[in-house]
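Onboarding guide, step 5: your first structure request.
Type a short instruction followed by the sequence, for example:

Predict the 3D structure of this protein.
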Amino acid sequence: MRLFLEWYCERKILRKMIRLFLNNSKRKKGEESMKLHQWHDCDYRGNIVRVDYETTDSQGKPWPKYANVYVPFGYDPRKQYNILYLMHGGGGNPDAWLDASQIKNMLDLAFANKEADPFLVVFPTYYDLNPSEHRHEGVDASWEDAQVRFFQKEFEADLIPAIEEKFHTFAEGTDHEQLVRTRNHRAFGGFSMGGATTWYVFMNHLDIVATFLPLSGDCWAIEPKGGSNRASETAALLAKCAADQGFGKADFRLLIGTGRQDIAYENLVPQLEEMKKYPEIFAFSGDKDSGNVHFAVKEDAPHAYEQVYHHVYHYIKDIFR
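The system replies with structure tokens like these:
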């Protein structure tokens, strides 16, 4: 029996080593190995709080919206908290991340195990109407892009005040000067079309946000799927947006991720390769202690919340440094 157990354990270790070797052999230069979340029950659970607010839709009419806010266990309104805004993908809503992934359990465990200081996470939506009310066949890329572009005004004018006046962040108010002063304590990320939203936030709100997590989504500023179709122009535009505002590689962080089998991989990678041509703006590094742009790929991962939330965990120590 003992010999059998020794043989069995040796086989398990060997299989693990082979799997690790194969995954490392797939990884390309500059890609980081992934730290993955494993579900465990947690006694120190945060709460999900719904925040209702009003904005203006693209027709100029008042439009009621809501966002879900993850409030960490032990939240103390006398303390100041960093805040991450995390956008859903196409067809989603403020519930999407929470319904389709284990992100809440990941946050609970990460904060309980002191892997990062607790922070607030906001799950908003960029839509100004229910996507089901937009009659179309298949994916209407131009309409999605227009929705994301219109959200850029709402982000600072309506969403941030609704959230940061309710919860105690580092901002002592929500006027523009306060948001600029506290940009290092504010991050924005998103999955798929939320990743495209993140690139737009980078272009439009770099003065009030310092860390960005575009996950499985390229930049659509030139055109839909511009990260692959017009990669060179897209990278040049992103570099120009940062430079024109006086920002360089020391002023922000891009924490990028996707899956090897993700449909977004082929759209995102050409854009990143072109961005490397602007090292004064985008300093790529596989070492999180250097550079300001990091790229992690989850092996064998398709385009799904249940896969991409691992990237938030992978970067959780790095979002607010």
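Each response can be followed by summary notes, for example: Residues 1-33 form one domain.
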